[in-house]
């Protein structure tokens, strides 16, 4: 037991150093992918293909997730509001929650879980087949050719999914709140805009846009550095989804705090 305890600090230090190294390499991959953004002609075709792929694989799941989310929030908030005698405020709370927090996180997690896993497996397959090394031998930077279009495609699709999540969630909440709990439609929609302002929608789209970059950067980097063989690719996919979720929630907290300082909530 004593030798194991003696080795524990060294093991923890090595894990921390490895995590910092991975974080640095991830940032390098992200910045290198953005560096050649101006050369749109080289990656436009791949960008369109990736956008279509992400829309196709996330369109239906986002609807299936957003409607129950809106319904669940509506039911919970409606019960609390009924106990307080403020059922007319359910619509305002539901729409505010969907716009400010639920929509960007749901869009980012869908892009990461569905599209990001596919990106990781694709990049990992290219890595174990030595296609990335072959591109470098031919004088082609694989980051510029493959990562750049995926970064912009994931960020674009993530921002476009936000309105879909908001609409589906509000429709689900409207059905259960108005039809299930007896709130009048006028009261529901009158309160829907009580707590929202135009900057709230802008920060929501900005969050989703940033989260899309994060999901694509993590997926590409994890796939390009995965271990050899199918097992390495599978572990890379799992690690990419987990890391993206952790980073997205952390960045969401930071962006929300900054926004609340710059734009105080309406009193």
UniProtKB/TrEMBL annotation:
Q: Name one Pfam family in it.
A: MlaE
- State whether keyword Transmembrane applies: yes
Q: Which UniProt keywords apply?
A: Membrane, Transmembrane, Transmembrane helix
Membrane-spanning residues: 51-73, 93-119, 151-176, 196-219, 240-262
Protein name, entry field: ABC transporter permease
Per the UniProt record, the lineage of the source organism begins with: Bacteria, Bacillati, Actinomycetota, Actinomycetes, Streptosporangiales
């Amino acid at each position: 037991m004593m030798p194991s305890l003696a080795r524990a600090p060294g093991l923890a230090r090595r894990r921390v150093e490895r995590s910092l190294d991975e974080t640095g390499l991830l940032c390098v991959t992200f910045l290198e992918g953005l560096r050649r953004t101006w050369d749109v002609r080289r990656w436009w075709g791949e960008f369109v293909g990736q956008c279509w792929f992400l829309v196709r694989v996330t369109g239906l799941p986002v609807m299936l997730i957003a409607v129950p989310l809106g319904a669940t929030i509506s039911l919970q908030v409606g019960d609390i509001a009924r106990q307080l005698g403020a059922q007319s405020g359910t619509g305002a709370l539901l729409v505010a929650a969907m716009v400010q927090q639920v929509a960007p996180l749901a869009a980012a997690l869908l892009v990461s879980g569905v599209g990001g896993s596919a990106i990781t497996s694709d990049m990992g397959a290219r890595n174990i087949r030595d296609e990335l090394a072959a591109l470098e031998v031919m004088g082609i930077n694989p980051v510029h050719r493959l990562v750049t279009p995926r970064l912009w495609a994931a960020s674009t699709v993530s921002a476009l999914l936000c309105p879909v999540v908001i609409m589906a969630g509000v429709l689900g909440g409207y059905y259960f709140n108005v039809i299930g709990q007896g709130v009048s439609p006028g009261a529901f929609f009158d309160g829907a805009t009580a707590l929202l302002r135009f900057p709230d929608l802008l920060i929501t789209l900005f969050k989703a846009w940033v989260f899309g970059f994060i999901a694509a950067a993590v997926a590409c980097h994890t796939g390009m550095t995965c271990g050899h063989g199918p097992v390495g690719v599978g572990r890379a996919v799992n690690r990419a989804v987990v890391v993206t979720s952790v980073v997205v929630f952390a960045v969401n907290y930071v962006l929300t705090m900054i926004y609340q300082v710059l734009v105080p909530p309406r009193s």
